[in-house]
Amino acid sequence: MTQGCPFTLDTTGSDLHGETAALREAGPAVLVGLPGGKHAWSLNRHDDIKRVLGDPRVTKSARHHWPAFVNGEVPPDWELISWVAMDNMVTAHGRNHLRLRRLVGKAFGPRRTEAFRPRVEELTDELLDGLEAAAPGEVVDLRERFAYPLPARLVADLIGMAEEARARTAKVIDAMVDTTLSPADAQAVLAGWRAAMADLIAEKRRNPGEDITSDLVAARDEDGERLTEDELTDTIFAILGAGSETTINFFDNAITALLSDPTQLEHVRSGRADWDDVIEETLRAESPLAHLPLRYAAEEIEVGGVTIPKGDPILVNYSAVGRDPRLHSEDPDRFDVLRADKSHLSFGHGPHYCLGVGVARLVARTGLSRLFERFPDLALATPPGELRPLPTFIMNGHRSLPVRVRARTATGS
């Protein structure tokens, strides 16, 4: 990060926590430079972020509340265009947001989440079976072989997307979170994911199934007032992207933390902590989402004594929340599953609180518990400090997670 007025965010994500600490020290709301010469206010302290996330004067709708976007000053090849051009429940405001959230929320109720458990367990075991084929001492990329495919394939199942189509779309999602993209690549990403969603919708119109896409297509076709075609396309993509990318990075971070400090894993094995403790501490210390583009001040607001003018973009620094010393005064940067207070905002807060929390926790608990049961001697194949971060300031994860695996024997020894 180059300090100045404004700060310029490091698009390579080379030192996410160092940059976050500097932003937090600089103030509760700091003007930062984004790709393409755009600016936003980075919010960096827990109390302020929580308050703003619940403030009705702050929205996620660029088409209504970002004058630069409304007036055509944001070009179609802007590096972050996919994050602001969407028309779905993520970017909707007011009554439109409530309408879309109700339609999608039906798919994530407790009953449907529980019905999804057998598939979560089946796919987890399938991927672990594949890891058992690794030769003794072989280095395996656990991100590619487990952390990535488990949530990605499960979310594809939820929306009814075939594996071949999911694999193609995954490349688009990976590119979307890469903040080192060129403008031409950014424009291609937007066109790519919309084309992929259009193909999926056309398929579900021909052959509906027991999946979220079919349900939303039916709602659209039965009553066009409930869902426009753009909202349908963009909402399905939001489910796919949000449901997979964040959980991929959660697994990456949780596994890295446990293997970097074996005493943490021993706390779980001894019963002093459980997998829920691991989940919450990972979300606190290593939020899978770093900075989320973008929100907008629908009216002038004040954050920690800083005035944010009406219409200005806002960037919520989720990676700053759980490590805020004002919230966690005792060694906030240390990963500790025995920590009593693991407060975080990694699932958001307020009207945009994550609908898929139940599914996410089910997948996290199942994946971690079965991975470490099957591979008790799992070990990093490289020092933690040499793991390369993803090239982004949006997500928090690694490009790869090299490990050595050894399955438990028949006697469990």
TrEMBL record:
Family membership noted in the UniProt record: Belongs to the cytochrome P450 family.
> Which keywords fit this entry according to its UniProt record?
Heme, Iron, Metal-binding, Monooxygenase, Oxidoreductase
PROSITE patterns in the record, alphabetically?
Answer: CYTOCHROME_P450
Where do the TM regions start and end?
none
Gene3D superfamilies documented for this protein: Cytochrome P450
Q: Which PANTHER family match?
A: CYTOCHROME P450 YJIB-RELATED, P450, PUTATIVE (EUROFUNG)-RELATED
Answer yes or no on keyword Iron: yes
Any one Pfam family here would be p450
> In its UniProt entry, what is this protein called?
Cytochrome P450
- Name the domain of life this protein comes from: Bacteria
